[in-house]
Amino acid sequence: MTKVQDFIQSNQLPEERFLPVLHFEKRFLISDFGRIISIDGRYKGIRFLHPHLETLGYYNAQLRMAPYNRKCRVHELVGEHFCEMKVTAERMTWNHIDGIKTNNFYKNLEYISAGDNSRHAVAIGLHDIKGQKHHHAKLTENDVREIRLLSKTGLTHNQISEKFGICRRQAGDIINLVNWGWLK
Is the pTM of this model over 0.85? Predict the structure, then answer.
């Protein structure tokens, strides 16, 4: 058994698999759990790399072996080596199914369009863009409450819409809970 195989066997998680990293086959191995083994790098011998956590919450690793130098996110490496990559749109990206950016296990990754990734983030609560948090919001929650109160005093949708600088239809939808229905 080689030194690398001994190292893997003595440090392997249950059912963890390692594959050589594309273009860095002699220097790095990636596991389906997102762990990276460095072979005879700056520090001679075999060791695990310690990726750093970037400001967006993903783990990054720097892979170097002349003539290649690649700074990459660990989940992208795992996805490229262990997951199916079906291209269905122009802009594709890796999605963490559970929403935890540091969980780089291959079964937690899927290759989807950028739009689907954004919709998934909203659906699981990573991006809250309801109401006044939306970048196109013209009204605040207090405005919506006031619109509903004014409608009960007898003001028309037209009068309310002019007061708040919105269209008549928008005023009606707010009053009838079609828009901002979650706000009671």
Answer: no
Same domain for 65 and 135, yes or no, is no
* CATH number of the domain bearing residue 28: 3.90.75.20
Dist CA 158 CA 164 (whole Å): 10
Domain annotation covers residue 180? no
* 117-121: long-range contacts, CB 8 A cutoff, minimum separation 24: 117/93, 120/95
The answer, yes or no, to whether the previous bond of 20 is cis (omega within 30 of 0) is no
Please name which of 71, 72, 117, 115 lies closest in space to residue 94, comparing C-alpha atoms. Answer: 117
How many residues can be counted in the chain?
184
Domain total in the chain: 2
**181 in a domain, yes or no?**
no
Distance CA(20)–CA(93), nearest Å, equals: 22
Run of H or E residues at 80: helix 74-82
pLDDT by residue (tens digit) across 79-113?
999 999 888 888 899 999 999 999 999 999 999 99
Residues 139, 158 share a domain: yes
Residue 23 belongs to domain spanning: 3-123
Angle between helix axes 157-164 and 141-152 (nearest 10 degrees) is 150
> Is residue 183 assigned to a domain?
no
